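Hey,
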Amino acid sequence: MKEPARILVVGGGYVGMYTALRLQRKLKQELRQGSVEVVVVDPEPYMTYQPFLPEAAAGSISPRHVVVPLRRVLPQCQVIVGEVTAVDPAARTAAITTPAAEESDAGHLEVAYDELVLAPGSVSRTLPVPGLAETGIGFKTVEEAIGLRNHVLEQLDIASSTRDPAVRDAALTFVFVGGGYAGVEALAELEDMARYSIRYYHNIKPEDMKWILVEATDRILPEVGEALGRYAVRELRARNIDVRLRTRLDSCENRVAQLSDGARFPNRTLVWTAGVKPHPLLAATGLPLTDHGRLRCTAALQVHGVEHAWSAGDAAAIPDLTAEPPADPDDLRKECAPNAQHAVRQAKVLAENVAAAVRGGPLVDYAHKNAGSVASLGLHKGVAHVYGRKLRGYPAWFLHRAYHLSRMPTFNRKARVLAEWILAGLFKREIVSLGSLENPRAEFALAADTGRHNEAS
């Protein structure tokens, strides 16, 4: 009996999940007959919709509603929770490490493939800043977003319950490094949440808090344009947020943020959102990479010069066919920006081309002109630059929500997010910290070790 053609999708993020979702529809007959199988590999059994992480951190959306279970939306695919550690393009095999293999010391699982879709995404780009690895907090996963929410609320509790002014000031100082979408939106939403929360603390005032945004370049939110970037700076500063442009974080040892302009901020919260870099897996594949470590791809989303290998999203350098061609024909075209807008649309074309490769059909090139950008600056505040029009304030914030709600996968998740927004408008914010969820065995371990609870009673 002939083995089914196996399509291996590495990564369950934007590109991975949307590609597999469309392959389910395009290859429905082949999947039903068993002549094709789609295997999706990701370290997590869900896809995270990252634009909603700031709202999840602020408590506007439940964390379980910003993730999409892969097995539920991909019932015709095989989902493997694990990590691809190596790829052999010549033999067309991939090595996968799974939690079960780690538990049993069985080594890695080797999977053969006919078509390979590489979409592992990106990871946080860190710099050798002293103290960063020990004290920094990222903002790329739902776990980090919820952990940061709990942490900020815990700092308010610490500040409210101490008489030590040094401890209090450090607890109420929040430093964010990076002026892109992640940093600005996370800071704006959390500052909103903290400002609301302190009305329930009798000894903390809004002016007691210090929120600092550190950006190495001369503007924030470069995607929305210079004018809206300046507007965003003015809006944040009007809320008493200290925005420091052309400034770098030199050190954060001993929980003291030392900036390049000479300022020092003792703190207990330092959030690092200063960019991303391609996933380390790409360097281990032996496939052609750009100087920035992304896979060099054609406009048809094939890895350049390699058959049966495809990529898109953060991992891929895709030529932008809508941009002006270079003056010198030997120069490379401008690349598509590695953002969610392109990733979702590339996934559609990628699935079409992979299905065409399986069936022996023609390939199509990816071409999409950037529609614009939207960013939230907290509740009812935002900026947007869409199809040449610039919006600010409430209209931009509403457009931000409407756009991302439309992009959220599955009707189930759309309805849940919309319901939570409606309820949030009718009721007060939740200000409870559930930091103990991050270490659920602590209470039981304490009781077992000390016997502090009287079992005889």
